[in-house]
C-alpha cells in the first residue's frame, strides 16, 4: 500500500491502458479492501490482457467462465462481465473522443484539481464532478462507475490531487519511502 501511494497514487496518468486498468481495479475493489485488489493486480493484468481494451472487448462467454475459476482475480461474474463490457465502452470513447484519456481529462480541463486538505478526514467520498462523470459514463454504457468509485478513480489517476498538506507527494513532489498521507 505504501509503495502504491509513494509511486503511483495521484500521479497524472494519460495512458488509455492504465486508465482502463485503474477503472477496472476500482470496480473490483467495490465491497473489498484496496490491499486485496493490489495483491491481485498481477493476476488482473494477466487475466485481462494487460488491460488492452481491444483484446478484452473480444472476450467470450468461454473466457468469462475461465476467469470465474481464476484465483488471481476476484471471481465475481458481475465484475468480470463489467470489465469486458467496459472494454467495449472504452473503445467507443476512443472512437468518439480520440482517446479515453482525452475524454476523461476534459472533465478537469487537462489539469489535476489540487485540493487543500489538512487531514484525511476532510476528503469527500464523492463530489459534484464525480457525480457528473459517473452519469456520463453510465449514459455511455459503463458499469461499476458510481460517483464514489469514480472519485476514488480520479484520485488514483491524478485527476484530483488529494494528498494532504503534510504529504511529501503534495502537488506531485518526488516519491520517497515516506508513509502514506
Quick overview:
It contains ten helices and two strands; from the N terminus they run ααααααααβααβ. With 181 residues, it is mainly α. The N and C termini lie close together (11 Å).
Write the layout of secondary structure elements.
Blueprint (H helix, E strand, L loop, with lengths): L1 H6 L8 H14 L4 H6 L1 H7 L5 H4 L4 H7 L9 H21 L2 H7 L6 E2 L13 H12 L7 H10 L3 E2 L20
Parallel strand pairs: 1-2
Helix pairs in contact: 2-7, 2-10, 7-8, 9-10
Structure commentary:
- This protein has 181 residues and is mostly helical.
- The protein has ten helices and two strands, in the order H-H-H-H-H-H-H-H-E-H-H-E.
- Strands 1-2 form a two-stranded parallel ribbon.
- The relative contact order is 0.18.
Amino acid at each position: 500500500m505504501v509503495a502504491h501511494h509513494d509511486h503511483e497514487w495521484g500521479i497524472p496518468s494519460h495512458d488509455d491502458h492504465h486508465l482502463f486498468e485503474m477503472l477496472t481495479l476500482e470496480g473490483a475493489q467495490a465491497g473489498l479492501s484496496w490491499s486485496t485488489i493490489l495483491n491481485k493486480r498481477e493476476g488482473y493484468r494477466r487475466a485481462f490482457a494487460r488491460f488492452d481494451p481491444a483484446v478484452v472487448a473480444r472476450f467470450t462467454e468461454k473466457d468469462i467462465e475461465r476467469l470465474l475459476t481464476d484465483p488471481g482475480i476476484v471471481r465475481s461474474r458481475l465484475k468480470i462481465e463489467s470489465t469486458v463490457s467496459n472494454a467495449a465502452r472504452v473503445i467507443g470513447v476512443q472512437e468518439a473522443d480520440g482517446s479515453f484519456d482525452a475524454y476523461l481529462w476534459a472533465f478537469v480541463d487537462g489539469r489535476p484539481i489540487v485540493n487543500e486538505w489538512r487531514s484525511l478526514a476532510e476528503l469527500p467520498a464523492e463530489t459534484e464532478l464525480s457525480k457528473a462523470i459517473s452519469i456520463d459514463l453510465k449514459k455511455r454504457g459503463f458499469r461499476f462507475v458510481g460517483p464514489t468509485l469514480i472519485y476514488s478513480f480520479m484520485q488514483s489517476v491524478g485527476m484530483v490531487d488529494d494528498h494532504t498538506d503534510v504529504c511529501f507527494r503534495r502537488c506531485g513532489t518526488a516519491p520517497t519511502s515516506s508513509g502514506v498521507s
